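Researcher: I'm preparing a figure for a lab meeting and need a structural model of a single chain. I don't have an experimental structure, so a prediction will have to do for now. The sequence is pasted below. Please return the structure as tokens so I can convert it later.
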Amino acid sequence: MTTTQECCADQANSMLSTRRFGDIQRWSQTLIPTAKEAPADAEAPSHKLLVRAGFIRRVGAGIYDYLPLAWRTLNKISGIVRDEMNAAGACEMLMPALEPFEFFEGTKRDVDYGDNLFRLTDRHGRVNALAPTHEEIITEMMKGSIASYKQLPLNLYQVQTKFRDEARPRSGLLRGREFIMKDAYSFHTKAEGAGGLTETYEKMRTAYTNIFTRCGLDFSIVEAEAGPIGGSASHEFMVNCETGEDTILRCSKTGYAANVEKCGIGERAWSFDGEPSGDLETVPTPGMASIEDVSKFIKVKAPNMLKTIVLSIDAEHGGGWVVAVVRADHEVNEGKIKDAIGFPVAMADETEAKAAGFAIGFVSPCAAKTVGAKLVVDPDAAQGMDTAKGKPYFWATGADTHDHHVKRFNWRRELGDFLDSENTIVADIRNARAGDPSPKAAGATLTEGRGVEVGHIFQLGTKYSEAMGFLVQDESGDRNAVIMGCYGIGVSRTLAACVEMSHDDNGIVWPMALAPYHVLITVMKIDNEEHMAHATNIAKGLSEAGFDVLIDDRDDRPGSKFKDADLIGIPIRLTIGDKALDQGGVEFKQRTDTGKGEIVALGSITTRCIDAVSSQ
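Model: Understood. Here is the structure written out token by token.
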């Protein structure tokens, strides 16, 4: 994890080393429609503040205008991304946002994305998609351009608008239907060694670390699931913030971090053996399929109830059923079940499962033996004895009969030798949570934090090349599927995540590298020629030193100007007024300062601003 202090120092030094002439703009000549109130539907801090500070404006559900301040910050993020991607050996290009639907025929990713994929039909009846990412497009392009291993490896990227038909767009730029993204794709003839996927994957991990460090973000790198994009190894880059929508779990000793879907759980003792807690009792539970309803009705707490989920194995791997069992207060993890049995699984179709003999909503572990399915049990559920209390474990579960549950379920009594067969597996199959044993250090536990995902890198392998027939000839003359990697950064999401991470009660607090302007010059008397002349001269000197400067030349009350200055979050504010000028200087104040500003001599302002950046 990179600390906030390290981030600030690195991005400050990076800005100063650039030494370009900065931009100068007047408030009266740009569009910054600040507002006192946030939109009624805004919940996330970034949504509230970006609208109030005049960065974005809602066009429709999940669709926003990027106003001048936001566009400046987005360009700065994109510039940092381009710098580091180019330095890592990637090459920029641009692909169309519109994708012909036939590109999904081999990958079936339209099925994976489901309703989140924007679909539209043109005047000729051809179905197209608005691209969520571009794996199919770039694979097809490379298939028509690359014939030999000598042309690889290659890593191509773009910065482009992407689309996702969110059912419930929310949180402003964090969960929209249209967003700006950098996506890169690498192509290889081997996984390991020079020019292999692993080498480029590590280069991308380093590039991403550099990007988010230069952006001034406090972030973590966490192990992750690949999701609908697919592939094997996968890491997310998360901006750490209390209001983040994602949960990050960390080992308290080793620094290991992973998201909820990927995080492993350390070893837990288990045993199916143990005397029954009493005779099996069947309880009618009419219309009570939910855990909460059943728990209240039969007066059994969730940790003493078994949640049984039915999943199906695809036909390619022989078909069949999997019965997964966890404690009722835990959540089943499909990815972990796949790892446990070695085959991809999916939630069972209810109609098909019922036809096979499962009483969906009232299934017990016994259904695995009755129907002929694999039984996969989480260690916390595979308990015959409650060792903490020194007595048999009391379990309640479904009765395999509609509208009925049972009390005093006992593993050994109910399933007997089936528990010892190859059809029964005990494995970590649930989502981890705070307090669970760490998978990386004996005796350590997992702690929980929150974050916003801003980057994700994947080792795709041959998922797309095999599906689309992208083969190249190797040194031996054999044709093999190309090995691929995929690397994404949410550019507009990074803007919002930075605000989630860095704000206070008065507004946004931008790190220097992402601030739309580095310095705000607030002029108290815009009709005073001396005041305006000082503002112009100061801005020119700062520009020559590489600072972007915004001059607040509005005819407005000082209090209103100061409130807007805090709201938009420019790192340094210089105030030109009679009191400071009488002392031969201007008031200097950093956005993070809580007290009054200091008077800096007119001839020392540029040096003071440089010192402020260098000391961060």
